[in-house]
Structure formats: C-alpha cells, structure tokens
Design goal:
Blueprint lengths: L16 H8 L10 H4 L12 H9 L4 H41 L3 H31 L3 H20 L6 H18 L4 H18 L3 H13 L31
Length: 254
C-alpha cells in the first residue's frame, strides 16, 4: 500500500538584513538555479532520472513501472515550476532591483520587508512543487519510504560527522542506527521528525564517537561564524539540490 503523502522542499533564506546584503554581492542574472533540471524541453518527458531522484529510485529499488511514473511526474513538476518562473520573472527582477537599492543605502527596514516578499515568493513556488512531490511520495510503498528515510538520515549524519574522521566501524554503526530509526520518521510531522533526528545524533555522539572526536566536533562548532549568509538574494525559484531534501520525504498529511 502506498504511504499517505505530504512533502515540501525548502529553499534556504537569509533571515537578517546583514545576511541578505552579503548575499547580494554575488547576485547574478536570473536563470534556473539548477541547469540539469531545466535542461529537458517542456514539450518532451525526461528520458532518464537524474540527481536525487535517480538515487531515490535506486535506493528504494523502484520497479520499472514506478520509475516511469516518477519520470512522468518530474516532467510535469518541472513544467509547472518553469511556468511559475516565467509568470513571476518581472516581479523577481523588480525585487532584486529594490533590494540592491536598499543595500546601497543601508536601509535595514526595507531589506527586511523585501526579504519577507522574497519568502512569500518561495512559499508560492513550494506550493507548486508540493502538488507533484505528494504524488512522488505516493508512488512508494511503506517499506520503500522507510528505506529512503534511512538512507537520507545516514547520509546527513555521515556528512556532518565526517569532519572527525570516522572509522569504517563507526560509519557502519551510524548506518545501522539510521536504518532502525527510519521507521519512526515515516508518517510523522516536522516537529517530531526534528526531535527524533536530534535524539539519534545525540546518542551517536555519546555512544559511537570517541572523546577526542567529540572534542574536535565541539571545536568545529566554536570555530563556526556566528552568522553565515544563507543565500537570501532573490533568484528565479527552482527545485533545491540539497541531497537530503531534493527528493520528497514521506510525512503526515493534513
């Protein structure tokens, strides 16, 4: 039986005026943020799965029929996102212009107000993608959804904790714990998911890492800048390429 789908792919957004100002320094021309997703003409279905969606199909051992439905849904998803981009291009260009002007005059109030407008655009873009992400999640069985959750969870943990030079045994332990935890993630809301992930990470740091690794991890946190630009400059909305979030996650429907 397919799982009850609900998914939302979130784009990063700088929440402070300072972060928005710094991000604007690297502002480029409007273009799809991920060329590989925009490469397929809207008039023809994608011939092959790519990126995280290919990983989704491989890691969950999707059948040929599931893969075909996934490719079809992704084609429709990209077409809808491209239509949203085209419809809102003038609005986005104007928002870019106003944010640059606010930056030049150091107008913090205006930058924050314009940042909220950018957030609103991103939320609208997510609404477009959500319709298709729910369909993608619905293609998976409960077992496949659990497998995907475990894969994403272990990959995120291995990436975050890899800075302390994990051994092969430690990596295997993290994968094993992630697989066991995945069942609890399927069908839960965002708050519960975050709590489960945090508890798993805490247990891994306590039981799997050595004291020296825990000390190194703490040092890396202390060395981290207090505020890092998260990419608040408005750009043409497109699907994210974060490995942990591109392909949708099963979650409780409303």
């Amino acid at each position: 039986m397919p799982v009850n789908p609900h998914a939302c792919a979130r784009l990063p957004f700088a929440k402070s005026a300072a972060a928005i100002a710094l991000a604007l320094a690297a502002l480029g021309p409007l273009a799809p943020a991920h060329a590989e997703e925009a490469a397929a003409p809207a008039s023809q279905p994608a011939a092959a799965l790519k990126g995280d969606f290919l990983l989704l199909a491989e890691q969950t051992s999707m059948t040929a029929e599931q893969r075909a439905k996934l490719a079809e849904t992704l084609h429709e998803r990209e077409t809808a996102i491209q239509a949203f981009n085209a419809q809102n291009e003038a609005k986005i260009r104007q928002l870019q212009k106003e944010m640059l002007a606010a930056r030049e005059t150091h107008n913090r109030e205006s930058m924050l107000m314009l940042g909220k407008q950018h957030q609103s655009l991103e939320a609208a873009r997510r609404d477009v993608a959500d319709k298709y992400d729910k369909r993608i999640v619905g293609l998976m069985t409960k077992e496949q959804a659990q497998t995907w959750e475990g894969y994403k969870l272990s990959r995120a943990l291995l990436r975050d904790l890899g800075k302390v030079n994990l051994s092969a045994e430690q990596g295997a332990a993290i994968r094993s714990r992630s697989e066991k935890t995945a069942a609890a993630l399927v069908g839960t809301d965002d708050q519960s998911r975050n709590k489960i992930r945090a508890e798993l990470r805490k247990s891994i740091e306590s039981d799997v890492l050595t004291q020296a690794q825990r000390d190194e991890l703490q040092k890396s946190v202390e060395r981290r800048p207090a505020e890092t630009p998260a990419g608040g400059a408005p750009t043409k909305p497109a699907a994210p390429d974060n490995p942990a979030s591109s392909a949708p996650s099963p979650a409780k429907s409303n």
